[in-house]
Amino acid sequence: MKVIKTVQLMQKTAMKLKRKGRRIVLVPTMGYLHNGHLSLIKKARKTAGANGVVVVSIYVNPTQFGPNEDLSRYPRDLKRDLDLIRPLNVDIVFNPSDKEMYPGKEEGLYSTYIVEENLSKNMEGSSRPGHFRGVATVVGKLFNIVMPDAAVFGEKDYQQAAIIKRMVKDFNFPLKIVVSPTVRESDGLAMSSRNSYLNESERKQATALFRAIQYAKNAVSKKGTINANDLKNELKNLIEKEPSGRVDYIEFFDPETLQPVSKVRSGAHLALAVYVGKTRLIDNASL
Prior knowledge:
Blueprint: E1 2-4, H1 7-19, E2 24-29, H2 35-48, E3 53-58, H3 78-85, E4 92-94, H4 98-101, H5 124-127, H6 131-146, E5 150-154, H7 158-170, E6 176-180, H8 200-205, H9 208-223, E7 225-227, H10 228-240, E8 245-253, E9 263-265, E10 269-276, E11 279-286
Parallel strand pairs: 1-4, 2-3, 2-5, 3-4, 5-6
Antiparallel strand pairs: 7-9, 8-10, 10-11
Helix pairs in contact: 6-7, 9-10
């Protein structure tokens, strides 16, 4: 397993692999890997095939964090990450610095970003202004640097995956986007690097997100069609019964357009963002 730190070497390596006809599959991550990430890497290995090349990028992207968010304390442990992925037949780890990814940014000489203007309006887009500008930009850069034939993303970040798929279509990136199912702990909590922020009490309370999803699924199954605002209030009450729970947003939307729906029925999608103490967690599910 080769660790590459520079854009120039990664591009040179990718071009060499392309000339040899090797299929490249990328898994973009911000590190501090968990079993959810490892499932994406296994999916990438299958997608690449026996002769293909799996590239895992590990980079905490500063442009997707707001000024008061957790960039400085976001968990980082490269040695741990490398130990976790080494048995998974990963070929290359791309681990660049900020100066490599955003040359000249500190001097005000970096000024080009990718902005998606439709799918990014609601939910994470409105709650975290500028977040998807940073995500789209860094992913677009990774596509140009690694030159993958396919890239694997997790369904836990449903809106993100939709935006990346739209970007690939709109910008004619020559690659396939593979979206892999959310991986959960035994009690239903979606795996996330930010789960490491939770203390023991908060960790128990965090299961409220999954319980809210189950509640919504059962409600739709029993009633068929439900007023979205009524169901939002019921879920909010369920979550905020937890002493540390505070809802950021709950949204029901069309899974293709991401537009909010006023009536919730089978086939609608639910996304929610919840603070448990100071930790912000997201989850989503098809109803």
